[in-house]
Design goal:
The chain is α+β, with helices and mostly antiparallel strands and 146 residues long. The chain has four helices and six strands, in the order E-H-H-E-E-E-H-H-E-E. Helix 1 runs antiparallel to helix 2. The radius of gyration is 26 Å and the shape is elongated. Its main location: cytoplasm. InterPro entries: DLC_sf (IPR037177), Dynein_light_chain_typ-1/2 (IPR001372).
Length: 146
């Protein structure tokens, strides 16, 4: 019995509510990155980021062995299939104005504030603010008596 190389397994669709162009993109990207990456989370991450860039934000990609999913999605933006034993789900969550605004305008701000919070210390169960280093005042020269 010959082994099928990764990325060349036959695709078995479980549910597809997506345009043909999007489905072709998903299959192409899945096969391409299945051969390139060993870690499943890398495959899902790259496909999600590609769809975010090409078709707008709010995409979610799930990948794993022997699983199923039941999610709420935007109509016309869901696909679920198996390639061998590997299951894959890609969907776009509902387009709420708040989430799109947050994604586009405030993502960099949140990332910066997260990095700041990460550096704070927790003492006695309370989050301590970072102390700013005190500026040293230059020493005044004492006049010499002659």
């Amino acid at each position: 019995m010959a082994l099928i190389p990764p990325g060349e397994e036959p695709i078995c669709f479980i549910h597809c509510d997506m345009s043909k162009d999007m489905v072709q993109d998903v299959i192409f990207l899945f096969r391409k990155f299945r051969q390139k990456f060993q870690r499943l989370e890398d495959i899902a991450s790259v496909i999600r980021k590609t769809f975010d860039f090409k078709y707008g934000p709010l995409w979610t990609a799930l990948i794993g062995l022997h699983f199923t999913a039941h999610v709420t999605y935007e109509p016309g933006h869901y696909v679920q299939f198996y390639a061998g034993q590997l299951g894959f789900v890609l969907y776009r969550s509902h387009n709420s104005l708040f989430r799109v605004k947050l994604y586009e305008a405030e993502a960099s701000y949140l990332f910066r504030s997260y990095k700041k919070k990460k550096r704070r210390k927790v003492i006695g169960g309370k989050l301590q603010k970072r102390k700013k280093p005190k500026k040293k005042k230059p020493k005044k020269k004492k006049p010499t008596k002659e």
